[in-house]
Amino acid sequence: MKIITTIKECISYLETCSRPLGLVPTMGAIHNGHKELIKAASKNNSTIVTSIFVNPLQFGPNEDLNDYPRKIKADLTKLQGLPIDLVFLPSTEEMYPDNFSTSINVGPISNLLEGKSRPGHFNGVATVVCKLLLITTPNNVYFGEKDAQQCLVIDKMVKDLNIKTKISKVPTVREKDGLAISSRNIYLSKSERCSATIIYKSLVLAENLYLQGVNKPKLIKNAMSKLIKSVPLAKVDYISIANPSNLKELGVLEDNALVSIAVFVGKTRLIDNIYLKRIP
Ligand code: AMP
Question: 37 CB less than 6 Å from ligand 1?
Fold first, then answer.
């Protein structure tokens, strides 16, 4: 497992690597969700690159950029033994020199849900992912369905800009009690961690109501909201039941609707989602 910290070295190392090449972009604090992406990449690629870069462009002014867990040493230990050829650790200074000014805006889809709560977030995501794709020129890139909107934004960018990389999506990896694994889970106190299980419970409730024949998103959203309100430490930011391709809110439920939720548990903001399916 080679470790490279400069863009120039990364480009020259990958020039001679065997193809196909798979990229797994991360912000570090490596967990089992990231490992599942790496596992998926290892099935279809001869060379695997994992990048670790806490991207300042995707954090709002009052968000957790400074507190975001940076544990490079522990991360490299966790990555040892996984099928990775290169860990790419670019510096912020090289990714965004003082005169850096380009921003990629993929349009309306980036202003809904997460984009509404976190203005500018997806411009930051699209910009860094575009840079990483241009630096590493992967045949395949891997993203988690946990960030479903992020997947849609990247799909759109790749399509609009004729980027040749194929995007693969990996199902959300969960803790035993259903909580979606996230680097931000470490912010949670013991009681908050306990309260956070309500997020997945609310998604399961949505699924059950759908399977029972409830077809009005409004009724499902109300039931989810009520369930979450029963937990004092949890506060809903948004609940959405939308078309999975364009994120437009649905008036009547349809199969494969995307239920997305963002909840503050204490000060920590967590997101999760599921697709509603008649036949799971
Ligand atoms: P992050 O380091 O949080 O930016 O995540 C890097 C990649 O891992 C993104 O594509 C995420 O969607 C994905 N990811 C994060 N958590 C999970 C999870 N619990 N299951 C599957 N993929 C995940």
Answer: yes
